Predict the 3D structure of the following.
Amino acid sequence: MRSVTTRSLLAALLSLALVGAACGEEDSGAEAADCEVDQTDGDLNIFNWAEYIDPDLLDAFAAEYGVGVTIDVYDSNEAMQPIISAGNSGYDLIVPSDYMVAILIEGEDIQPLNKDAIPNAANISPDFENLIYDPDGAYSLPYQWGTTGIAVDTAVVGTDFPRSWSIIFDPSFADAYSGRISLLNDPRETLGAALKYLGYSLNTTDDDELEEAKDLVAEARGRVAAFDTDQADELLTTGETAIAHGYSGDMFTQFLETDDPSRYVYFVPEEGGTRWIDNMAIPHDAPNPCTAHTFINWLLDGENGAALSNYNYYSTPNEAALDGLDEDLLDFVNDPAVIPGGVGSLEEIQDTGDFEIKYTDAFIEAVG
């Protein structure tokens, strides 16, 4: 992290921010795998975010193609990237976010896609073409998209609270919920939240602005119960926290599993927050790249794409899947209260080049 109508919201959100790059990618010299449609060359080993795909979908793919499927999970792009970059990971498919795709391309850590083996790439909405992190879609195809914001247990906090990052970062409000707040274990997301609260871009490359954000997260640390990505939604609905930083689909899916979903509210604070696109990519040394191509193509089928979104409640870039989305999901995406600052308040995390290590270091200092 994912209607107006579904199609019109999709266009409205993405047209404001998904801007094509002004120049093409440099040619790394790597070649796409020589694969045919529906070809498999071994079992499929996936490295993905937690609870991001229905296990029944994986079982269906395994049964249809006669292969085994295993999945391991990570809780941030920064946790995934060094494992892939080191090589010999054994993974055939990964799901990096927008800015991380650019980093992986630059590092030659993912391979070009053989689009001839992925005819269902034609199902991707035109709104997801010419993306700044992979302008020609040569290395990745969109998987899901959504937002990052705050979820609140109104039985604890009430309904009269500011739709602002202040409920986490302003002691005059947040101290009342000390020990019942969680933040994501993710350098760019959590420092990005602090940067937005301070009125800065979450892609700043200003040392002083990053230092302010680091200090803000460090100050909040004393009232944070956990820096947790995998279980932020569950911590909220089990009562361990009352205010949780997290991803839109994770939160809403978890709300629906409770006795009273209306008890919980998710929103992107009025100062703004993250809109992200996660993508499917194949590591440069994937042992079974043809199986990976076949899985990407299979998941981009309209029915399978709808099943993916109806499981994780994120928005789909798959135009062929839109008519199969659940009404509950459409209602959630439609709700204007989810983005009180308007779509113009949202930013995509972008690769800041050499400044990326400063985000990682600042986060380690802030939470350490």
